[in-house]
């Protein structure tokens, strides 16, 4: 796992500090008011969770295009269970995590069973789940008054920090410990870094793919739970705008597309950057398409820069090997 103190993390911290300062100046300090700060950190929770969900699939060299669809189905299913079926609010809300994990498990089993790239599988699953989500709620919106104990939790704070953000940080900490301390986490990284070497070491690549997609779905379900806690209701639009932020956070945070790496702190910081862009968009009335263009351009630029670094590193390694070979030949000839 990438070190906590890295050039990328320090750069992201700098961007967050400068961005927040500029918004503070532009709003004459109102951005740092208690109401604004509470809203900022409350709505930061979902970008962090979906970023971590995408990070887990990226670490094994996979993609999860169904992040938003999984979260949308989980949230809408919970709304239906609570409102129409009479399921107790907390049980219904927490079922989002189970639903997300099961849908992630289905993705993993399909990837392993069909031997089709995860990009295709999750793309197809997205379309299926969008249909399921619409089938659950149609054009209706289920109001959060039906699960008021959950929204009370979402509105509450701990020492001035929103409960949902504290919960999100705890989840991020668990994810970090999973990759740094657990055998399963290290197996995921090993299989993503070098699948052939991992197989020789006795690691099941199929199992790691299933685990990665299951955990990714579980975190999408956690994001759905937060959505239930902070939004006034759920409908068929939930999750529709999750895909780009889910990629932006880990990629800008320093996770490579090739697999084998995670960057939990970087993902959290990058999600904060994306949230600052959203806040600036609301304050300055930026066009949504312009904001999406900027975020997409940053993600593409980050990927291109990472690829350039990989090529340069490979070139340096090749030159070094050539020099060593030449030195060895000269020694033999001498």
From TrEMBL:
A Pfam family of this chain: BPD_transp_2
Keyword Transcription regulation: no
Transmembrane segment boundaries: 38-58, 65-85, 91-112, 119-138, 158-179, 209-231, 251-277, 289-308
Subcellular location, record wording: Cell membrane
Membrane topology: Multi-pass membrane protein
UniProt keyword annotations, A-Z: Cell membrane, Membrane, Transmembrane, Transmembrane helix
Domain of life from the UniProt record: Bacteria
InterPro entries per record: ABC_transp_permease (IPR001851)
PANTHER family recorded: ABC TRANSPORTER PERMEASE PROTEIN YPHD-RELATED-RELATED
Protein's name according to its UniProt entry: ABC transporter permease
